[in-house]
Amino acid sequence: MEVLVKAHHPVVPTLSRLAVFALALLLELLSPPARALPAADDVYWQSREDAWWTGPMMANSPETGAPGHFLAEPYLYDVRTSHANSYGSRTYLVYGLANDFSVGVIPVFGYNRVDGGPNSSGVGLGDFVLQAQYQFTHFHDDSWVPSTAIMLQETLPTGKYDRLGNRPADGMGSGVYTTTLGFNAQTYLWMPNGRILRLRLNLTASYSGGTDVHGTSVYGTSDSFHGHARPGNSYGIDMAAEYSLTQRWVLALDGLYNHNGNTRVTGADVVDPFGGPPLPRDLHMNSGTSDYWGVAPAIEYNWTPNIGVLLGTRVIFGGHHTPSSITPAIALNYVH
């Protein structure tokens, strides 16, 4: 986190552009299926039953599954920046509770390796996520209506975030409760060669509370700090496409944008991060807003309609107050 005091930049222009972009993508999803595209008379139109998917690397599905059935999808990944590696696992466990309604949990674990400092003391628990989703509409062949759903997530502050001592790399959480509201949509297009292109759109908005902070923390505070931190709200968009090469093989690509609001830290410290003498003083820090764009190409292989594996890499190009990163990942998808 930046420790220099920065003015909070207005986010209205950025969010306005994001809303316009999201509307354009939504209109694309709502367009009629492209089965009428020109093609030769002998083209075989692939059926949806003949296309097996694991799903793209990032975008969530609006499908809730039948009551009594569940999905398990563990991810293993390595977030690589210029001076650190963050190894982690993130497992999606979703259960169909009723018609068009599912509930789930997302446990997260991690280990940080940093240049020029101590690594994590061991594998740590990250923040735990609870999830519920209600599906409004279902896609049908020859219909213009996509599958759509509203998703609600609550992130619980189970990960360690302060009192880190001389191991800041032990920080795995944020220390705050975060509520995320999302809109998920999915539709199918038939290409001129008869193969299926599946599209997804995710829109999310996250709102965080505040937390007390003591000592060394994920917010960049020193061992003698005592105060309070409040992360800014964040907004994101993810548009994904999957092309069915064969029944078992799929090419996938996510395109994503994220905006994070200003994180404010206030309190008292005897160490001045701006280079002054080590005297007790009030401390006020603002991270400023941040933005980033990224892509996540991936390849999927499915042994059956219910079991598949994904290999992909998320690339964050960096942006305003955001470093670039590369995150290779592997995921196993199982639906019962």
Please name the defining characteristics of this protein.
1 helix, 336 residues, 18 strands, Porin, twelve-stranded antiparallel barrel, mainly beta, disordered N terminus, four-stranded antiparallel β-sheet
Task: Describe the secondary-structure layout.
Blueprint: H1 12-29, E1 70-81, E2 84-98, E3 101-106, E4 108-114, E5 124-125, E6 128-137, E7 147-156, E8 178-190, E9 196-208, E10 211-214, E11 226-230, E12 234-244, E13 249-260, E14 264-269, E15 281-286, E16 290-304, E17 307-316, E18 325-335
Antiparallel strand pairs: 1-2, 1-18, 2-3, 2-4, 3-6, 4-5, 6-7, 7-8, 8-9, 9-12, 10-11, 11-14, 12-13, 13-16, 14-15, 16-17, 17-18
> How many structural domains does the protein architecture include?
1
Q: Overall mean pLDDT score?
A: 89
What is the H/E string? HEEEEEEEEEEEEEEEEEE
- Neighbour order of strands in the largest sheet: 1-2-3-6-7-8-9-12-13-16-17-18
CATH class call: Mainly Beta
Percent range of helical residues:
under 10%
Oligomer: single chain
Rounded Rg: 22 Å
- Shape type: elongated
Number of strands: 18
* CATH architecture call: Beta Barrel
Percent strand: over 45%
Low-confidence stretches: 1-16
Number of H/I helices: 1
Find the CATH superfamily: monomeric porin ompg
Indicate the CATH topology: Porin
Let me know the largest β-sheet: 12 strands, antiparallel, barrel
Measured between the Cα atoms of the first and last residue, the distance is 42 Å
Class by alpha and beta content: mainly beta
